[in-house]
Amino acid sequence: MAKVGEAGVGAAMRGTAAAPRVSELRDFWTLLKPNVMQLVIFTSAVGLFLAPGHLHPLLAFTAILCIAAGAGASAAINNWYDADIDCRMARTRLRPTATGRIDPAEALAVGVTLAIFSVMVMSLALNYLAGALLAFTIGFYVFVYTMWLKRRTPQNIVIGGAAGALPPVVAWAAVTGGISLLPILLFLIIFLWTPPHFWALALYRNGDYDRVGVPMLPVVAGRKRTLDHILAYTVVLVAVTLLPALLGQAGLCYAAIALVLGGVFLAHVVRLWRQDRDVLAMRVFRFSIFYLFLLYAGLVVDRVLPTLVLG
Questions:
Q1: DSSP conformational letter for 249
Q2: What would the 3-class secondary structure string for 251-308 be?
Q3: Is residue 15 part of a domain?
Q4: Which of 63, 83, 108, 275 lies 20 to 30 angstroms, CA to CA, from 77?
Q5: Same structural domain, 190 and 119
Q6: What is the CA 307 to chain-centroid distance, rounded?
Q7: Centroid of chain to Cα 260
Q8: Is residue 1 part of a domain?
């Protein structure tokens, strides 16, 4: 693995020279990006619930714990690698590796340890396919997105989004030992959701990325082209969210939920596309999180509702 440049780490340390160099438990928790982990855990739990078959509750908990640990491992290694730019960006300057409360080498050690632990436990407690998929997810996020794509191409989020889309597939494999149509659709939904979600944030934080030389789409292509991309991806996303119902993997309840949510999300995006204001970009970003949460919750409701109605 490449090392963080000494100048970058030094800048982070100099910028917070007065800060105490004592790592606390909360610093290590922050290192794992718990806000991101919440959505990973939820989408994985939905994949686990929808998968045919049954897992003992302890094994189900173990599967979710391994996926969460894998997400935390990816975040910790990302903090290690990006310490040189995180300290110069408003959005990330308070990360523990950016403030100097956790040394980047410590973050790397935590990440590698968690990655090995999560993959080993998933493989031994559940099955080797789930373990292999989890290892691929972590590796893809670290090597493909963080180290290769992020600082080289405006397509970083498009391609790198595959890592965030895989957790429900990993959970499905943990139950079934295989992959079928529905987990592929779950993957596609998150994969297509990621670009408009993150590009909306990139519009708001455009100055941050420009300052550190990260070629996010607004920096490289400008705001107008980014808005066009957000709109195009959102239209495709809304269409793809209907596929589970159209292909017989979900019912009319989910279809109705997907249509309503898709319409609201598209309305937010169209307003941003027309007016291009930072406040609207943040509104799209924030709503997109609720959108994905509610969409996946709709799959659960669709599966549970007939049982509740019919007794």
A1: S
A2: CHHHHHHHHHHHHHHHHHHHHHHHHCCHHHHHHHHHHHHHHHHHHHHHHHHHHHHHHH
A3: no
A4: 63
A5: no
A6: 32
A7: 23
A8: no
Please report how the helices 57-81 and 34-50 are oriented relative to each other, as an axis angle in degrees rounded to 10: 150
Structural contact between residues 79 and 31, judged by C-beta atoms closer than 8 angstroms: yes
Residues 6 or more apart whose CB falls under 8 angstroms from that of 199 comprise 157, 216, 217, 218, 226, 229, 230
Q: Are residues 27 and 172 in the same domain?
A: yes
SS3 content of the chain, % helix, strand, coil (to 5): 80, 0, 20
Mean pLDDT on 67-78: 95
The answer on 291 and 264 residing in a single domain is yes
Q: Is residue 211 domain-shared with residue 162, that is, in the same domain?
A: no
Q: pLDDT at position 180, please?
A: 95
pLDDT in tens, 16-43: 433 445 558 888 888 888 888 999 999 9
> What pLDDT shows up at residue 21?
53
- Rounded mean pLDDT of the chain? 89
Range of the domain at 78: 23-177
Confidence of residue 2 (pLDDT cuts 50, 70, 90): very low
Residue ranges of the alpha helices (H) in 18-56?
25-31, 34-50
From 124, 155, 177, the end of a domain falls on 177
What pTM value is reported for the model? 0.89
The total domain count for the chain is 2
Q: What end-to-end distance do the CA atoms of the chain give, in Å?
A: 55
61 contacts: CB under 8 Å, gap ≥ 6? none
Which amino acid makes up residue 262?
Answer: G
Please check whether residues 37 and 172 belong to one and the same domain.
Answer: yes
Residues 246 and 116 placed together within one structural domain of the fold: no
Residues 269 and 217 both lie in one domain = yes
What the block records as the tokens of 171 is 């959970």
Check whether residue 194 and residue 283 sit in a common domain.
yes
